[in-house]
Structures are given as C-alpha cells and as structure tokens.
From TrEMBL:
Species per Swiss-Prot/TrEMBL record: Nocardioides marinus
InterPro entries, sorted: Ribosomal_bL33, Ribosomal_bL33_CS, Ribosomal_bL33_sf, Ribosomal_zn-bd
Protein name, entry field: Large ribosomal subunit protein bL33
Record keywords: Ribonucleoprotein, Ribosomal protein
Keyword Phosphoprotein annotated: no
NCBIfam families for the chain: PRK00595.1, rpmG_bact
Record-level Gene Ontology MF annotations: structural constituent of ribosome
BP terms from Gene Ontology: translation
Recorded family membership: Belongs to the bacterial ribosomal protein bL33 family.
An example Gene Ontology CC term for this record: cytosolic large ribosomal subunit
Ribosomal protein in keyword set: yes
Length: 56
C-alpha cells in the first residue's frame, strides 16, 4: 500500500511568472517529468493565463 512519503509523486509548488506571488500546489510524476514543470494556468491577480513554473 502506498504511503504518504512516496517519492514518485512529490508535491510541488507552481509560482506565477507574472510576479504576483500567486501559487498552485500539485503533484507530479517524477518518472515522466524529471525536469521542472511549466504549466499555463490562470492567475486571478492579473486576470489572465500566465506560465507557472515549479519551485523547489
């Protein structure tokens, strides 16, 4: 049974590149995405979609 300390799917924080400091929290599969994630998501502080980059 999988426990909370699973290293395959770590919890990562995605920070907005718009400079607002807005973040999303998600999980990623480290085997499929070994590099840092970049996702295009909605930032409500600037009211538009911007790139969110993984922060460690």
């Amino acid at each position: 049974m999988a426990g909370k300390g699973s290293d395959v799917r770590p919890i990562v924080k995605l920070r907005s590149t718009a400079g607002t400091g807005y973040t999303y929290v998600t999980r990623k599969n480290r085997r499929n995405d070994p590099d840092r994630l970049v996702m295009r998501k909605y930032d409500p502080r600037v009211r538009r979609h911007v790139d969110f980059k993984e922060e460690r």
